[in-house]
Amino acid sequence: MARRSDHSRGELRKMALAAAESIAEQEGARGLTAREVAGRIGYSVGTLYNLFGTLDDLIVEVNGTTLDALYDSLMEARRKADSDEPETVIAAFAAAYIDFIDRQPNRWDILFEHKLPKGRRLPNWYFEKLGRLLTLLDGSLAPLFAADQKRDRARAARVLWCGLHGICSLARSGKLGVVTGESVPDLTEALLTTYFAGLRARAR
Amino acid sequence: MARRSDHSRGELRKMALAAAESIAEQEGARGLTAREVAGRIGYSVGTLYNLFGTLDDLIVEVNGTTLDALYDSLMEARRKADSDEPETVIAAFAAAYIDFIDRQPNRWDILFEHKLPKGRRLPNWYFEKLGRLLTLLDGSLAPLFAADQKRDRARAARVLWCGLHGICSLARSGKLGVVTGESVPDLTEALLTTYFAGLRARAR
DNA sequence: ACCTGAACACCGTTCAAGT
DNA sequence: ACCTGAACACCGTTCAAGT
Questions:
Q1: B58 inside domain
Q2: A163 and A110 share a domain?
């Protein structure tokens, strides 16, 4: 059979991607299989491979849209923030990040769990999307750093992002540890308060 | 056939666990399959299931020994540290943690990537092993906190652990972002320096 | 040119059947 | 009682064959 051409290659990719995103969020990584995606768009597995090469490539693409959604959430958080003070903006970013994970836990898991097989590299557009997120944090720290301290500022942005990510990541995997149960927002506040106190102390 | 009883149930478990650890480190999560473990100890898959119930349970057990190894590495780092100053000890812990990941990347990946299926909970001994690690950090912060600030101290320990973990985790997944490439030790030092500056500033 | 679906080499898991 | 291995219901991936 074949040559249905009900859809152009571009349409097909979009349909598959949308199906994959929906499966990702509903079923998590374990349910995101080539056969399931193909089934949902009404094409055979073969077509999926012809479209994306590999299931890993499809997942990378899904993660790309997750990064976009994350970026949008952070942008919106900044827009809504009622101040340009770094503490305020970063706290708003953190809250938006936590909220994003709360709303889309499975997509967030897949974003950070997925690893390409040994020899393979993430595409350049992927790093650009990551960079955009970091630039957002970096920019909000501007008031705390002199013009000749761009490197320190970039490093601080990265450290904050790592810290927040570590809190969320360990919390979600249930490996934050033990009974007591400080909450994610608690730990985040502790991180930000102390880290900013450190930044301001050193600035003096 | 069967009833070989060449080995007791306990011996069998130990053999399987050892085989699984070796596969985990050599091949990573993708190679750690029931058939492979069974093959290496010379028994059938059925026996493995009779021993561990589920492959997930075997992996949890493997992760338990990874947590033990991590604990040992940190203990050794503290023993070797030439001071009890929190900054020094925590830096030594961080270096040991980074070194551990460097030496056993696949086992570390499995430790933090593995998630039990939806309804299942990690066993209690697992949380105890995690708690032991946190207690180590917590204890080393004692000089910075008054006796009635145990909660703050515990929170600080957790935040540091999350921060370090976030740095290592994003670095390993290639998602730390972008060209510049601050190294893991660089970011770790930035985290510790600023965070401790914050702790000391607030103490005053 | 485009698409299919059978085929290959794997998975985790179960369980009747053997000793 | 203990262990096996075939069987079930899946995987990712490929590719000859069809239109």
A1: no
A2: yes
